[in-house]
Design a protein that fits this description.
This protein is of the alpha+beta class. The chain is 58% helix and 16% strand.
């Protein structure tokens, strides 16, 4: 089929073509604006997600350290509780006649009481206290005397001079 195109028809097609191109430009501009807005929103959301992830990592590290400190504190508390129970048990025991205690003196003043000299030496050694320096730290033994309901100092005989020296 052959169709004859007249000038008014041609002008009408050109006008429709121009109108369609303008409409395409408008739609393309709107699409570009929408795409640009979408990209900006995507960058904003990505930035927020990255900051949230970094914050989560920091909070996780802080929580991990706090949990480690809590575990250490709980362990220390448990050890102290065990020691307190042991000391209470010792305190509740009645002193036996003739039972001795070791008293640690610091510059002549009572500092700590121990069940035995060995306990005193062991404990003071762990704290870096040097026993035997008479002017600073000294350990003396006391014996429980039931008749007086108290303790008395164990007297030690004076060392004999070597070779008759005075």
């Amino acid at each position: 089929m052959i169709r004859i195109v007249t000038t008014p028809r041609l002008e009408s097609l050109e006008y429709a073509s121009r109108t369609a191109r303008e409409h395409v430009r408008e739609v393309a501009g709107s699409a570009n604006e929408a795409f640009g807005e979408h990209v900006r929103e995507l960058y904003t959301v990505t930035d927020r997600a990255e900051r949230a992830e970094a914050t989560t990592s920091e909070v996780g590290a802080i929580l991990k350290r706090a949990m480690e400190e809590l575990a250490a504190a709980q362990k220390e508390l448990l050890l102290k509780d065990i020691e307190i129970r042991r000391l209470r048990t010792e305190l509740e025991e009645e002193p036996l006649d003739g039972e001795s205690l070791a008293v640690l003196f610091h510059y002549g003043e009572p500092h700590t009481i121990y069940r035995s000299r060995e306990d005193a030496y062991a404990d003071t050694g762990t704290h870096g206290k040097l026993l035997g320096r008479e002017f600073e730290w000294r350990c003396e033994s006391f014996i429980y005397n039931a008749s007086s309901n108290g303790f008395r100092r164990v007297s030690r005989p004076a060392p004999e001079p070597v070779g008759g020296a005075a």
